[in-house]
Structures are given as structure tokens and as C-alpha cells.
Amino acid sequence: MAQPTSHNAYLPGYAANQIQHHEWRTAENSAAYLLPSLKDLSTTNPIPTLLDVGAGSGTISASLAKYLPQGGQVLATDLSPEILERARSHATQAGVTNIRFQQASVYALPFADASFDVVHASMVLCHLDAPVQALAEMLRVAKPGGLVADRESDLRMWSYHPQLPGIDKSLKLLRATHEAAGGSVDGGARLVSWAMKAGARREQITASFGTWCYSTPEERRVWGGTLVERVRGGGMRQKALEMGTATEADLDEMAEAWEQWIGTEDACLGCLHGEILIRK
Amino acid sequence: MAQPTSHNAYLPGYAANQIQHHEWRTAENSAAYLLPSLKDLSTTNPIPTLLDVGAGSGTISASLAKYLPQGGQVLATDLSPEILERARSHATQAGVTNIRFQQASVYALPFADASFDVVHASMVLCHLDAPVQALAEMLRVAKPGGLVADRESDLRMWSYHPQLPGIDKSLKLLRATHEAAGGSVDGGARLVSWAMKAGARREQITASFGTWCYSTPEERRVWGGTLVERVRGGGMRQKALEMGTATEADLDEMAEAWEQWIGTEDACLGCLHGEILIRK
């Protein structure tokens, strides 16, 4: 499946700490809004199919597979064959057998119309320069009566303590870099709008908001570690220096602020994500 | 129970639309983080007691009462006897019988140490000029092994669509008015910190974040209606004009923006709230 070259690539990449955060994600902490519908589906359909689009390292996909009945199948797709290899290993290690993997672009899913009972994505559309086109493609491959489920960040909505200037700077940089790469910082707020532009009627859409919370020492290490790595040596540092949006000294200040945050016992950070379920 | 006069009063007040939003609140949409613990408690304790502090019109209190076993009791307190009368009527109408009401200040709860299995508050501490003192008082009246549960807004974290300048202005005004009245705009982010300052150890605290979502026509009417009323004729308009933080024309623009938002089919708004459970 060729990548449409007119579209943007996935900027954050797959550095060690970025992967560590990706792999922290589960159905429970990242797709809880979908679980009641999956449970309902499993009582009426013994062989449901779920397509997970832009699945990355696949921890949410494998976690979702556990909510399907024995005959249910997850198909996890991503543009990157390398990350799908990692996803495959994760599923094997987790003992999840009702899952398959296939390289695909969300803009040109290699499936017939009305192929899947559930089509799911998490933090995919917010990275794309044509999110409505991607959502329309997800709707296309969902069966009539099936569900399209999507969750996207609002990157402006990070509630944290303590208020360190270096953290604030790093969030501004993150948003600027994200937008420069073609993504939307406010995707979470625009999901209903995107869904309607992609062809859904308002009454087919159920909107909600979800969160991530980082507060325990382990959670702070996972989340703060991702940010430290991105500003110390990852793609965000390189991009910021190229674009001139931050100096070496700025980036070092950001990394130090995150390290301080990781070590602060009463530190806390919450992120707000928009969520939609579209009943096709 | 006398109100300590050194402390601030509850600014938003009880205008019709403010009440309408207050009464939209239930255990499910405003205290979901507490419900698994309440269910656990109900299996081990046939007569649990829950103190709901700053209960206002009491819809969350009455809703929580349904999660207790038959012998369980909710005691709902508020500084305002008038609003407690309304709470009492609501409970009667809802057929909730295991609930009582008592006027009290959160700063001087008229109860012995270790009186309640659960002490709960929702959007109370963020209005107070001494939130740590209030939280310490809530901890005092919780039984050892019991729970203190609290949820507070981060008023900076409103994710919405469409981006109308009048809405943005009204949120800035809301935050300024809230702070001028002695409240904290970032309470949701500071809950772990407040809890530790109030005497809790980090390992006693479980932090999470929750949300409110307004997206359907009915949800938009409830939430947007509150804001329209507050800027058209409520205490916020009066305060803004007194403080000189907005003109009549500004306030009218804000009201019109919210009216436009209410009528926008793909409009959406999410709020982010911090949550803590403290196991005493």
C-alpha cells in the first residue's frame, strides 16, 4: 500500500521513550468510551471484526482484541511496516491471537466498502493534514449499523502542576512543531465537525471527552521521559533548531524542567481528548 | 453554623440557568471516579455514611445515595439554607430517602473526627480562598480507612468548537471574575498538591482527570444557557461592570457568541477536571 505522497508523515517517530509512552496505552486508558459498545456488540455478534487504523505499536489494538468474543478479529494497520513488526511481537507476548496486521494508508484503505463492524483510530487524525478525508475513508469501510470510533488530543489542554516555565515553553514548541508538520492542535474539539464534514449526520454521532493522567512516579517517568527525549535528542529538537523556533539553550531548559517535574512528588498532568462514536 | 466571615462567598450564585446546569449534574457525569470505590464499600459495609460537602442543589448527593446499600446514609451540607431546601425537594422528587441535609461551612464541619466512611465534594474547593484548610477539615471527619473524594475544574481547560471570539472573551472574563472572588482557576491541576499540604501522604492519593461534554442540542442549551445568563444579567455581568473588566458591549458580544454556539449543529465543548481519592 503506497503512501499518498501529497500527505504529511508521522512526525513524533518511534524513539525509545516515545515508544514507551505509546506502549503505555491500553483500551482502558485510551478507548474506554468504546468499550460498552464493544461489549454490546459481542453479545449479538459472535464474529465481529474491528479495524484499528494507524495502530502504531499496537498496544491498544491488542487490548481491544480482548473485548471481542473468541471468534472476533482485529486487523491493525499502520503506514510503517517496522512499527507493525513491533505490534506483532507485542501481541504475541501478550498472548493475543485474534489479531492480524497489514500495512495501509488511512487515506486509501485496501478494503471493500462495508467491511468491518468497528473502525477505530486513536491520535491519528490530529497528525494528518486531511483528517476529514481520512475519517470519510474510515466511514466507507464500516458496515451499515457498525461503528466508527475516534479519539484525538486537544494539544492546548494540558493541565499540570507545578507550573514550570520550561514546561510551558516545551508545550508551545510541541504545538508549533505539530502544526508545522501539518497536524491540528485542536482536533479533539473539532471531531464532531470533522465527522459531519466526512458525511455523518449529527444524530449518528455521540461525542465525549476523555483524559490521560500522569501523577504516580511511574506515570511521570513514562510521560516526562517522552518529553525529555523529544527535546533532548528527538525529532522535535531537530525540527525546532531547523525552524529556528527554539535555541539549544531553550531546549535544554525544557528538558531540565521535565526532569524536575518527574522528580516532584506532588506533580500531576492531565490531557484532554475529544472522542466520537459514529453509528453508520 | 456560622460562616467564617474571613472567607469568600460562593460567587456564581443560584440564578435559574446556573441552577439548571447544577441540576444536570449526577454521580455518573460528575463523580464516576468515586463509583467503583462506593460499590466496593457497599459490599463490605452495610451501613456506610457519606458526607457531601458544598452539595448545592444536591443532584450529585441524591445520585450518590443510590450507590449505597439500603442502610447507607448521605448527609449533604451547604452554607446556603435556601439551596439545601431545593436539594431536599429534589431528593423527595427523585424518591431518594437515605439522605439528610444540614447547613454547615466546609471550614468548620460540625462533626467529630472520624465520622464518615466517605467525604465528597465537587467543584467546591476551587471557589474557596483557603482550599487546603477545607480539605484538611474534610480529612478530619473521614474515618481511618475511609475515603475523601474531590473533583475540581481547571478553568483554563475548555476545549470547544467553533472558535468564536465572544466565547474566548467570556472564558477570560469568567476566570478573572473567579480569581477576583478568591477562587483558583487551576484547582484541578493542584489537587494532589493541596491534598499533600492538607496532610495526606502521596501514596494515599489516587489522582485522575474527568470531563464534562456538551455537544447535543440539549447539552448545548443547558451549558450555553448558563453562560448567556451569567453575562446577560447574572452576577458575572454585574461584577465585570463594577471591576471594569468588560463593557456592556463586550458582555452583549459574549452572550451573542454563546447563543450562536448553542445554535451551531457541530458545536462541542469539553471541560477538564482534576480528581483525587484519598484513602485515609
Automatic annotation (TrEMBL), chains A, B:
It comes from the Eukaryota. Pfam families: Methyltransf_11 (PF08241). Residues 51-148 form the Methyltransferase type domain. One of its GO terms (molecular function) is S-adenosylmethionine-dependent methyltransferase activity. CDD domains: AdoMet_MTases. PANTHER family: 2-METHOXY-6-POLYPRENYL-1,4-BENZOQUINOL METHYLASE, MITOCHONDRIAL, METHYLTRANSFERASE. This is Methyltransferase type 11 domain-containing protein.
